Each structure stands twice: as C-alpha cells, then as structure tokens.
Amino acid sequence: MLRRVWGWTKILVAFALGLRLAFWAADLAGAGAVTLTWADWSVTAPLWAFVVGVGLFTLALFALYALTFWLLSIPAALRRQRERAGHDALARGLAAVAAGDTKRAQRLSARAAKRLPESHPLALLLSAQAARLSGDADAARATFTALLEDKGPGRSFGLRGLVQDALSQGREAEALALARQAAEAGPKKGGWAPRLLYDLLLRNAAWDEAYAMAGKVLPPREATEDRRAMDLLLAKGEAKPMARLKRALGVDPAFAPAACALAAQHLREGRPRAAARVVERAWAAAPHPDLVPLWEASAPPGRAGAPVRWAERLAAHAPDSAESHLLRAGGAERAGLWGQARAHLDAAAEAEPTARVYAARAGLEAAAGAEAEAVEVWRAKAASAPKAKAWVCRATGRAHAQWVPVTDGGFNTLAWATPGAPAAPAALMALPELEVEG
Fold first, then answer.
1. For the residues 61-67, what does the mean pLDDT come to?
2. pTM for the whole thing?
C-alpha cells in the first residue's frame, strides 16, 4: 500500500514540474536563442525549444529507466508468483493430510514441490506426510531423514516424523534416542520434544531420568504427583526405602497408597506402633478402606473385645464418615455384636448408600444366621445400588482393586473415583504394559 502511494506521489510531482516547465518555456519564447557548437558542427535553436528538448530528453531517460527496471523485475515477479502458488498448494496439501485425503495430498505435494525450492522444509514435510498417508513408509522415512539436514525448523519436523515412525513400528530404543536429540536441539522449555521425551522415558521404565525431568516439563502439581508415584515404585526395589516412602507421603497425607506403603514398611521392620500412627494420620486426613488391613495388622495382640476398641480408636479420627461406620461394623461383627454392627451399617448406608455397604450388610446377616430371604434382600439392594469408589484409570475407565503406579492405561493414571463416571482426558501417549498389577 505504501509503495503505491509513493508511486502516485512521484507521478503527481513529475506532472506538476512538467507544467511548471511548460509555463517557463512559454515565458522564454521570445527571450533569445541557444547555440551548441561541437568541433565543426553547430546548431542554433530558440531558448524555449532548447528547454522543451531537454525536458523531453529527460522524460525519455526516465521512461527507459522504468522500462529497464520493469524488464529486470520480471524474473523476481515470476518467482514470487511461483512461490505464492507453491505456498497455496502447501497449505491445501497439509489440510488434505489432516483430512486423510490421500490422493489430494499427493497431488498437492507434487505441485508444491515443483513451485518451491527442493529443500523447502514444509514441502518436504508435506511430501513425507503424503507418503505416510498412502502407506509408503520407506518414502516417508527417507523424506523425514532428508529434513534432518535443514538448519531451521525442518530438523524438528524430521525428528518428530522419525520418532512417530519408530513408535508405530515398535522401535522404542530408536524413538527414545531421537527424542533425546530433539529435546537437546529444541527449546529448553515448551515445544513438543521435552514432553515426548518424558513420556518415552516412562514407557521405557527409565525412572531415575524421568524423575529428574518431571519438574522441567510438567506443571508443578502434576510433576509432584508423578514423582510421588515414582517414589512409591522405586521404593519397592530398595533395601532402605523409608526416605522415599516418607517423601511420597509428605506430598499429600491424604494419599492412601503412600500411607499404606509406609505403614507396611514399618510392619516389616517390626514397628507396629509406628505403622498405627501413620494409619491414624492418614485416616484423619481422608478415611480410606485400603488403610483398614494395615490398621488391623498393627493391633496389639489379643484381649477380649479388642476388635471393637481397636476399630473405635481409628474411627474416632473421623467419626461421622461412612468408612468409620464400616470399620466399626466390622469390629462389632468380629466380636459378635450383631445389633451394634447393624446400627453402624445403617449409618454408613445413610451417608453413602453404595453397593459395598449393602453387600457388607448381606454378609453380616448371613454371619448372624438370618434367614436366606433376608440375606437376599440385601444382596438385591447391593446389585441395584450405585457402585462404591475404586481406583479407576483415567485413560481406560477400568477399575482396579488397588492402586498401582503403572497400568494398561499408562503411568500414574489411577484416581479414587466412582467407576463409570466420565473419565478425565487420557494422556498424550498411552503407555504399554509395564509390570501391570491389579
């Protein structure tokens, strides 16, 4: 736009100067003559004719200059036109790849290749994507490899394509090596490579390296939770895991798996009182059924009525929760106090009317010697009641009996939730089975 304004401005200025010269020449019409002499050659002309002649000669030079400039600019204009056509084909070709239109992507890839430089990174990317879309894995891999020679963003395109190619063919070690190259060459923060490298480290069970990298690629809360899961996983293979277990529980005292792991380690080392203290603190933060077996294992050996008193001691930290009522009901049942157990199960059903509570009531009635019809009534209620919370994988929606760091849905994907509820978005990259439990 500015170039056009400047061009018209020059034309108007030239026109005004021309008018001024014309008026000046008219004023000089009778002012005399000009004689030009060169060797033996001489010419005489009126002054006005000389001025007009000089003006015309100047205009002719200007026209010659403009024509020369226009002729010289033709190759650049044609080149720009080709580039515009190439970029248009490039944009439409990438859209065709996204839409899965193989034939159109190949046609536009060929058109872009003709109109853009041979080493243009986006043209090579389109060519590789079109080849991959058509099933020509070798051609796609060759083109992605050629992109590695680019000094700009093309190298990143090539590395990403090769990583995807390696992953699709199960070459995990190669994908991990390429992701490391991409992470080293790319920006230290942001970009696709650091997060992809982190996911691949998890896929390949490179826990120590992933632990160190978590804080660099994940939001603070997510990094802390992943490190907690890695602490619990790595603690299983250490001779002295207490420091890791305490660190994992320190992240969130309400996280039952960490409390269970620490209490279990205290029990293995012969410290039941320490185990009981861990369970009590966790129960006060968030009562959880996974804590109950460890609480019972921490109980001092036998005295009459001990199950009731031991259950009451833990339940006192959260007396009104459904889990505390279930805990008390279990202690009363073991002591043969059927009425007390029923009362606590009724209170639990009022707080959380779930299938687990009604199933516990059916078990209680069967243990108390009730008639079969009464037991079936509670079993029918359990069958129709809402499901109790469980460890549900956010990626697959599958419920697990216990928390584990790695499942068929990925790493650290289990959450304490109601099965069947809408799952959170799955991770960017699902992980293969790695020592899957549960």
1. 75
2. 0.71
